[in-house]
Amino acid sequence: MNDRLLRCLLALGAIAGLVQPALAQDDQVFRYPEDTRPASLLPFFAEDMTSVRMVELIFDSLVFINKRGDVEGALATSWKVDDDQQGISFVLREGVKWHDGQPFTADDVVFTVRAARDPKTIFNARSKFNFIKDAEAQGQFGVRVSFNRPVNEAERRFLFKILPQHAFGGSTAISRKDKFARQPIGTGPYKLDKFSLRSVDLVANPDYWAPAKIGQVMMQHTPDKAAQVNLLQYSGGQAGVQAVIFLQPKNIPLFENSDTVVLEPYHTVSWWYMAYNHKNGALADLPVREAIALAINREELLAAHLGRGDTLSGPFTESSPFYNFQVEGREPDLERARQLLEDAGYKAKGGARQKGKNKLKFKFVMDKELASGQELFLGIQAQLKKIGVDVDAEYVDHARYREQVFTKGSFDLTMNVWSFEEVEDVYPLFHSTGVMNFIGYKNKDVDALLDAAQATKDYKKYKELMKELHAKLNEDLPYFFLWSLDVYSGLSKKLKNVFIQPYYYFTSFDEWELKP
Amino acid sequence: MRALPLVLAALRRLAGSLGLLVGASFIIYMTVRLAPGDVVDAISPMGTPPEVKAQLAAEFGLDRDPVTGYAAWLGRSAVGDFGESLAFSPGESVMEVAVPAFKRTLTLCGLTLFAGLTIALGLAVLLGEPRPRQQLFTAPAYVLTSTPSFVVAVLFAQGMNWLIHAYVEGGGFETPIWYPIPIYADSIMPYVFAGFAMLAGDGLFMDWFNTLRAELLGLRQAQFITAIRAKGARTTGHLARNLLVPIVSSFAARLPLVLGSVVIVEYIFTLDGAGYVLLEASRLRDFPMVVGLSVLFTATIIAVGLAADLIRALVDPREVARGG
Asked: Which long-range contacts does B65-70 make (Cβ < 8 Å, 24+ apart)?
């Protein structure tokens, strides 16, 4: 009797708990998950991609890159570059208001530039403002920005977001602890409604000069990739999502013939690399670097672990105007690799290689957050073993990786991804004085090419120099350039008029529509 | 007069608990502070000059040696100031972020334990002595209980989504508001599912059920219960009073297990509790947040243990006499 009663009670409880009345779906809410929580909605400190995408919705820049790849005015309606390319003057859009109702003026642009140049404002992208000497207002709706040196296509450098002077009390020293990071005030198509522990809710800005068609945006921090796929796959539900920014290659087949989801390419201007520490005696030797590069089969690794992409021969993606298609990538050649090591004095001994008492053994430091990092390392380890090179992995979390690799240089080999905004600026990576030259690379010819490129006013000449740099870096192997990936977003078919901006993603979001 | 030994025992335990909390906070602080990778490296650009990094370190209070830093932290935390978040929510006070999140987590854990206790006790009463037919229920329950709670959570989420999708596609019923999992809608269901995962996995529920059933069976057969029954009096009150000690003890013993598993379960069900904040803050090396939350977790476990001891002492004065 007790058992029968129990079974009935359990069944009733299960049914009661599961069935709840469904509410009417709000068709004007765009929901999407992100891998990481936004670190800051203050544009200077928006250093992770989640923050970059959110900031794109909340703030405006003077200009933006439109769908055709041309520069178009946003907060600026027109501009004129000086004849000597050492300055630019903008005419600003009138009638624009900040989200708190204050008027946008030239003083805000001047403030933003000066804040970026203030030595007390410490942020990762500071070097992007180094070309600027100063900015000055010319009336309420005019700004002139002067440069330290001639700059090609100067208007393309003004994609940074403008900040409201009145929100910072006039002080140009901006701290990442400022409450503005949680309570941003922009001029963009969306304004902040709520920033809670793991979600950010935005509502359309009715005063925006090109009003958005979707009423609300809700971003939720969903670190688990499988959960993101669930939310998209079952997006017929009330609480499903309309987009997943990055679909992992293994999940793409789920949506290839989907009735509800379409795959859209998301061009990220990023490339993978394997870096050599040039302070390591063996790796400072070009034949050793060359041998390692010849042993690695990139196509095999790509196909096995990451899906589709293009193997690269230099520090640019194939869609970059600087990519040198005359430079061929290295094809795997184990015989040549072994010969190079023999000639360099690393003799084969019992499956390993030695030069005197020094074994050819390296520490390969990996960031645990790198997608498929472990599988890629195991593949590389097996490939290098074939030429007698031993590598041991050290997997560390992201914070420790930054300290160990970028700050202390305590690694021999590492693998990672560089992402750029519109066009790759590789000066900081490969110039001997470059702030991001963590590998200790020094090459006078490369320095000369980079310095000449920075000094030239002629864009055609600049492109030629970059292509020459591409060839030089392919030859000298500061990194072994691996590949750029074909990245796809999964988007609900209810979304219309979609264009995914390279890198920024949501630049054209005000034109997107969400049909019922 | 009977109250005095109890009060003294309580004061002794309180003093010991405070000492334990200070000791635990020291270990937590040192472990986090000395862990490789710090927030200054995490947030400052490559090529940042050493003097600028030093400025940032001073701003974050990282310029002091760890022992001095701990002493300063202890002084502030004694008045409820755990400092400011460095990376999770820069500039916000740790208490402002941590306390509301912790309340949500405690509510989830408390209700999970309470629900588990109620169901386990109810089943123990209903099912009585173990019988072969009950293996139909206990066998799958043992399989479930030997699975880690986060695995239960993931499998449950996947399975439920698949099931609901199939029913909805087949016209079975309308789409529930809480579908798919994880859930964005304003609903209590993610908490229900999270509670189920924590209860079902890691041996929590079955262990509780077995313990309570064994205690209950033992009590029913005890001589004093037989004597009470023989006199024609009701035994319910006596059974309840005598069960209180094992119930309270097992509640206090299982709280650390649940608080441990809640960290991952909150991540899976996208709940905004202290477990989620702790995991994110650890990843970002936000040491004030990590230390603050860890101390809150530790303080809760110590406080619940202390409360359990006091309740045991009230119910069973022999505990005080034994020096408990």
From this structure: B66/B29, B66/B30, B66/B33, B66/B34, B69/B29, B69/B33, B70/B26, B70/B29, B70/B30, B70/B33
Higher pLDDT residue, A297 or B313? A297
Determine the pLDDT at residue A330.
Answer: 93
pLDDT tens-digit map of A203-251? 999 999 889 999 999 999 998 888 899 888 887 555 678 999 999 888 8
Helices B236-268/B204-220 angle, 10° precision: 180
Residues in chain A: 516
d(C-alpha A123, C-alpha A176), whole Å: 8
CA distance A389 to A112: 51
**A361-367 and A413-419 strand pairing:** parallel
From chain B, pick out residues whose CB is under 8 angstroms from the CB of A182.
Answer: 89, 91-92
Residues B184 and A31 sit within 8 Å (Cβ to Cβ): yes
Interface residue A4 vs chain B (CB under 8 A): no
| Residues A177, B91: C-beta atoms closer than 8 Å | yes
- Encoding tokens for residue B1? 């007069």
pTM, rounded to two decimals: 0.83
Phi, psi of B78 (to 5 degrees): -65, -25
B192 and A17 in contact by Cβ < 8 A?
A: yes
- The residues facing A501 across adjacent strands are A505
Looking at residue B144, its amino acid is L
Q: What is the DSSP string of A383-433?
A: HHHTTT-EEEEEEE-HHHHIIIIIIS---SEEEEEEE-SSS---HHHHSTT
Report percent pLDDT > 70 for chain B.
92
Determine contact, residues A110/A137, Cβ cutoff 8 Å.
Answer: yes
Contact of A248 with A306, CB cutoff 8 Å? no
Chain A CA closest to residue B185: A239
Average pLDDT over residues B99-109: 92
Most confident of A27-41, A118-132, A268-282: A268-282
CA gap B48, B55 in Å, rounded: 11
Chain A residue closest in CA terms to B265: A224
B181 contacts A438? CB cut-off 8 A = no
| Chain A residues close to B54, C-beta within 8 Å | none
A13-50 b/e with 16+ CB inside 10 Å = b? eeeeebeeebeebeeebbbbbbbbbbbbbbbbbbbbbb
H runs (alpha helix) in chain B:
3-33, 39-43, 50-59, 66-77, 94-127, 135-145, 149-169, 189-200, 204-220, 223-230, 236-268, 274-283, 287-315, 318-321
Helix (H, G, I), strand (E, B) or coil at A284: coil
| Residue to substitute from B89, B138, B150, B154, interface A, most A β-carbons within 10 A | B89
Task: Return the pLDDT at A21.
Answer: 39
Picking from A231, A238, A233, the residue whose alpha carbon sits closest to that of residue A260 is A233
| Residue A220: C-alpha distances to residues A156, A194, A496, B98, B252 (Å) | 32, 12, 22, 19, 34
Give me the mean pLDDT over the B250-259 stretch: 86
Give just the sign of the alpha carbon dihedral A250, A255, A261, A263.
Answer: positive
CB A40 within 8 A of CB A183: no
Answer yes or no: do B157 and A230 touch at CB < 8 A.
Answer: yes
ipTM surpasses 0.85: no
SS3 track for B44-77? CCCCCCHHHHHHHHHHCCCCCCHHHHHHHHHHHH
**Residue A69: other Cβ atoms inside 10 A:** 8
A510 SS3 class: helix
Distance, CA of A302 to chain centre: 20
What residues in A contact B178, CB-CB < 8 Å? 20, 238-239
Question: Given an 8 Å threshold on Cβ–Cβ distance, is A226 in contact with B154?
Answer: yes
| CB contact residues (below 8 A), chain A span 205-234, against chain B | 218, 220-224, 226-227, 230-231, 233-234
Q: Do β-strands A488-492 and A352-355 pair in parallel, antiparallel, or remain unpaired?
A: unpaired
